[in-house]
Amino acid sequence: MSTVVLVAALVAAGLVAGLFYAYACSVMPGLARGDDRTFVEGMRGINVAIVNPVFLLTFLGAPLLAGVAVFASPRPWVIAGFGFLAAMVVITAVVHIPLNNALENGGDDYAALRAAFETVWVRWNIVRALVSTAGFGCLVAAVLTSR
């Protein structure tokens, strides 16, 4: 059973790391090409759309399953994977959600909203992509060394 939980955590972590990587490589650079209104309204739409059961199950499921795997088999790679995935959630809660909320509730001075949002959000998303990828990599190592 612990292997099943570990593999489920690995799959969820891979999906989340891939999502943040895709934001870093395509979504944000694509939105950056638009004018201020397009950027702000595009992010507002994305921020509403992403809060859905599939995303939340994956985003919260990765660290939760990794945490369960720690209790089932407290090995260094599993613990490290859990730590990185927990850090991903903290970064999202401390940086991205407040920025997203400010963007949503900031009115329609699109230039000011974008200026306060874009650079910080993008920079921390790259950190979040790296952290979640590190969590994924640690869980890969845990699966590969579990034999």
UniProtKB/TrEMBL annotation:
Source organism's superkingdom? Bacteria
Where exactly are the transmembrane stretches of this chain?
Answer: 50-71, 78-99, 126-145
Keywords, alphabetical: Membrane, Transmembrane, Transmembrane helix
Q: Which InterPro entries match?
A: Anthrone_oxy
| The protein's name | Anthrone oxygenase family protein
